[in-house]
Amino acid sequence: MVEQLEQGTIKCHAAVAWEAGKPLVIEEIEVQPPRAGEVRIKILYCSICHSDSYTLSGNDYAYRFPMILGHEASGIVESVGPGVTRVKPGDHVIPLYISECKECAFCLSGLTNLCLALNDTQYVGVLADGTSRFTCKGQTIYHFMGISGFSEYTVTSEYSVAKIDEDAPMDKACLIGCCIPTGYGAALNTAKVHKGSTCAVFGCGALGLSVIQGAKACGASKIFAIDINPQKFDMAVKFGATETINPLDTPNENIQDIICSKTLGGVDYSFDTSGGNVSVMKSALESTHSFGGVSVIISLADAGKKVEIDPRTLIGKKWTGCAFGGERGSNLNNYVRLYKKGELKIDEYITKSIKLEEINNGFDDLKNGVSVREIIIL
After folding, report:
1. How far apart are the C-alpha atoms of 250 and 15, rounded to whole Å?
2. What is the per-residue burial (b if ≥16 Cβ within 10 Å, else e) of 115-151?
3. What CATH class does 3-177+346-377 carry?
4. For a Cys-Cys bond, which of 1, 65, 73, 146 suits 46, CB 3.0-4.6 Å?
5. DSSP-derived 3-state class of residue 295
6. What distances in angstroms separate CA 8 from CA 82, 268, 286, one per listed residue?
7. Is the pLDDT of residue 19 over 90?
8. How far apart are CA 298 and CA 76, in angstroms?
């Protein structure tokens, strides 16, 4: 039950991560009203992403506990603080974990989708003024990725919201907040996959499926989908993979050697979406050819993990990373419109919808590979 308190504070429910490695706890929290340049959002839907699980594990040491996780969300603007001009109450929005101020040197460069506006605060769990809008039992609760979507209400910077069409299905639009543009955009914007090219996608979870979908849209002629879980292959083919490979089927051969043997010495583009396995990152690089091959790292490795390669491996190749598929928030409504035209798959990602009280089961399902995406109804 949501309760409005004096001075605009709202009482509502959220899944609180009190400490790393422990189950989330459904708590009644207080959400303060938005301050200057901020937006308070009524979250409608939020899915569970590997990045949430990664941070909850404690491997991402930048964030502070206790916090409210969740970043793949959709909702409606409930109120705005002084000076906000980009959105108004009632607007349908997708919160952004990569801000877009449109004023900093990065935003103005045209060379990157990264933004400097919230760099010093977002990744330590506070808003731009250095404080949190969440409290629970008298204790400060920190923000996650500037979003904190596992709460019925949240507060973000106005730089961290993307307005979308009001007829967008919000239970689908939440996936445009992370996994779909992150993979699709990696093929489209970062790698710039060209028509008739060959691609290898390492990992067939939600990110891998998004890369496959993006590579197909770019006109790739051959897309290898690689995973050690063959149950994911039917979905990969549905999204556009032309061949599936399970490395466990040939334990005496390196996967990169297999891919090179099936192509002209390697693929044009490879993508690591394996979930942070540094040996897979290396295999992805080595599966590209040496006359202009491009390998893109999308996964997050555990803190302290290193990839060791022979520098000669890089001759003639490009090895790069990407964030949010190189997309800006101002472009997200294009994904909404592609979906509405039937040119972008979203429904197929959704394994099931769950209640907030079932969130820990949802994390277990994701970890055990029995779901692609579970959507929390808030």
Report:
1. 43
2. bebbeebbbebbbbeeebbbebeeeebbbbbbbbbbb
3. alpha beta
4. 73
5. strand
6. 14, 55, 56
7. yes
8. 29
Check the CA dihedral 303-309-312-314 and report its sign.
Answer: negative
Contact 348, 150 (CB under 8 A): no
The pLDDT tens digits of the residues spanning 117-176 come to: 999 999 899 999 999 999 999 999 999 999 999 999 999 999 999 999 999 999 999 999
Please state the pTM of the whole predicted model: 0.94
Kindly tell me the burial class for residue 357, based on how many C-beta atoms sit within 10 Å of its own C-beta (0-12, 13-18, 19 or more).
exposed
Return the number of other C-beta atoms located less than 10 Å from residue 301's C-beta. Answer: 19
DSSP three-state, residue 104 = coil
Both structure tokens of 147: 């979003």
Side by side, which strands form the sheet with 25-31?
A: 3-4, 10-16, 25-31, 134-136, 139-141
CB 99 within 8 A of CB 122: yes
Q: What is the CATH number assigned to the segment(s) 181-323?
A: 3.40.50.720
CA dihedral 292, 105, 336, 369 (to 10 degrees): 60
Q: Given a cut of 90, is residue 303 above it in pLDDT?
A: no
CA atoms within 13 A on the CB side of 300: 16
Residue whose pair of structure tokens reads 């790698």 in the numeric block: 191
What's the pLDDT at 58? Answer: 82
